[in-house]
Amino acid sequence: MSILGLIALSFALFVAPKEQQLARNLPSQLQKQNQKFSVKYTKINFISPFVQKAAVASQDRRFYYNWGIDLVGTTRAIFMTITTGKRQGASTIPEQLGKNAFFQDTDNLNTDIQTKLLAPFITFYYPKQYILEMYLNDIYFGKNAYGIYNASQIYFHTTPDKLSLSQSAYLIGLINAPSYLSAHKNEAVFQAQLVLEEMQKDKYITPAQEQEAKKNL
């Protein structure tokens, strides 16, 4: 048997079953975390479309077309890691979801690999909109706000379905460094501006909407 054949066989026998089980356990794992962090779970139909579009544009622009792993982003991250010596992230929404659910307390190269193995199984088992729903209910926004409902209440005293474009961009902009950005308003506003620019670049909003939302930050 060739080396590639051995790798494929090893994956099928030892890796795939474990990742399949983790993927199947994802909803129940998130339910436990929701109880732990007092998350009020919100269905996707009750989350502003602006929030959904902001998350995809800024966190995983090929979300609706990839299989949980962004090969373009991963290749770029590997190149930057090799050339700079610093570990670079290339996390898709399914990768972030898997990491938050099962590897929340660790952040190293090993968990990066594990989440990349898990992400395609998450994408296989669940519809994209359900993955996005789980992600938005699981992500941390700073100020002890886990999930989009709690973040909407804490930052803007509203519910997820009523978030404006500027408010949506602000919350999604917090995701990459929630503890730091939630305590530094100017930096948080700058990140929100970047989210709006990504949304406009991907044609989720018009240039006029982008400029108006930036004024409201």
Task: Explain what the structure shows.
With 217 residues, the chain is an all-alpha fold. It has a single domain (3-215), classed as Penicillin binding protein transpeptidase fold, CATH 1.10.3810.10. Helices cover 67% and strands 0% of the residues. The protein has eleven helices and no strands. Helix 1 (3-36) packs across helix 5. The longest helix is centred in the first third of the chain and has 34 residues, at 3-36. The chain is globular and about 50 Å long. It starts with a helix and ends with a helix. 41% of the residues are buried. The model is unreliable at 1-14 (pLDDT under 50).
Explain the layout of strands and helices.
Elements: H1 3-36, H2 49-59, H3 71-84, H4 93-102, H5 109-125, H6 128-138, H7 148-156, H8 165-173, H9 178-181, H10 185-201, H11 207-215
Helix pairs in contact: 1-5, 2-8, 2-10, 4-5, 4-6, 8-10, 10-11
